[in-house]
Design goal:
Low-confidence stretches: none
Number of domains: 2
Number of strands: 9
Mean pLDDT: 79
Number of helices: 3
Strand content: 15-25%
Distance between the termini: 49 Å
CATH topology of the largest domain: Nucleotidyltransferase, domain 5
Helix content: 25-40%
Largest sheet: 5 strands, mixed
Radius of gyration: 25 Å
Shape: elongated
Strand order of the largest sheet: 6-5-4-7-8
CATH class of the largest domain: Alpha Beta
Structural class: alpha/beta
CATH architecture of the largest domain: 2-Layer Sandwich
Order of helices and strands: EEHEEEEHEHEE
C-alpha cells in the first residue's frame, strides 16, 4: 500500500484493493459460518419441539436415534447391544443426551434409557428443539 504523499499534488494516494479483499473475505467467512451453525450432526433427525428447552453446557455423550432405529453415539454408528460396551469407556459424570427422531417408537427410546441407567450414568437428557 502506498501511503506516501505526492508532493506535487499534495493529495494522499491510497490503494483500496487490499482493504476490499480483506472485507470481502470476512464477509464470505461470516456468511458461511452462519449458514452451517444450525448443522450439528450429519444425521437426519427431526427433534420434537418443546417450550421449556434448556441448553446443557456440561460434557456430553450424544446418543442419536434416526428413522429405522439406527443408533449413533457421538456420530459413530453402533448397534443396540454395543451401547453398554461403548459407555463403559466413558466418564460416568458426563451428561448423556438422547436425540431421537419424532417418528421413533417411545418404547425403543425407553429401552435405550434403561441401558444408559444400567451402565451407571446418573445424568440423562432428551434433546428437543426450542419453540420460539
Amino acid at each position: 500500500m502506498n501511503f506516501t504523499k505526492n508532493i506535487q499534488d499534495n493529495k494522499l494516494n491510497l490503494d483500496l484493493t487490499p482493504i476490499i479483499d480483506v472485507v470481502f473475505n470476512l464477509l464470505i467467512f461470516f456468511a458461511l459460518s452462519l449458514n452451517f451453525s444450525e448443522i450439528t450432526s450429519s444425521l437426519n433427525i427431526k427433534l420434537p419441539k418443546a417450550k421449556s428447552s434448556e441448553v446443557i453446557t456440561d460434557q456430553q455423550i450424544v446418543i442419536s436415534i434416526e428413522k429405522g432405529n439406527k443408533i449413533s453415539i457421538n456420530d459413530k454408528a453402533v448397534f443396540l447391544d454395543q451401547i453398554p460396551t461403548y459407555l463403559s469407556n466413558e466418564n460416568q459424570n458426563k451428561v448423556v443426551v438422547i436425540k431421537a427422531d419424532t417418528t421413533i417408537d417411545h418404547g425403543f427410546v425407553v429401552q435405550i434409557m434403561d441401558i444408559i441407567k444400567q451402565s451407571g450414568f446418573k445424568k440423562l437428557g432428551i434433546a428437543t428443539k426450542k419453540v420460539e
